[in-house]
Please model this.
Amino acid sequence: MMKTLDSFDFDSQKTLDREAMLELFSCDFVARKENVILVGEVGTGKTHLSIALVIACCQKDLRARFLTATSLVNGLAEAKAQGRLERKIEHLARFDVVCLDELGYMPFDRPGADLLFNFISRMYERRSLIVTTNLPFARWGDVFYDATAAAAMIDRIVHHSTILKTEGESFRLKDRKRDARTRKAST
Model:
């Protein structure tokens, strides 16, 4: 199923600033080289909204790329091992906006954190990032090897950004419960 803004259930996200989210879909944040950060628990729609936002950017003829944070770091590590790191970062930095999904789900070792920091520093004030994370900023030190690296990344990502929070029960868990009730009612 294509993840679009039309298919997002805003009624299940009462605390999400709907107007701010809708404003982002003009994609003007990209021209201003600003970032979008979606913070919230697992299953609360962050990835859905980020995919929809990437699609909206593409529909406005902006160059957009969607990656998980882990796949980005793995790709950068592979490029570094092959002596192509700078070329890989330059390639990614040509996109108007890059979405880093699931930042914080998997911890990075020091080399991985350094690669991610290098990429984020390259994008800073030159291009836009869309970041989804399940971790509050105070816990990023748990993922990025040390608190100093985490603070430096947060500083660059948060500067010039819109931060939106999703809350509530996982959409997937709600669907599963609804499906279980439907199966039970039909038997």
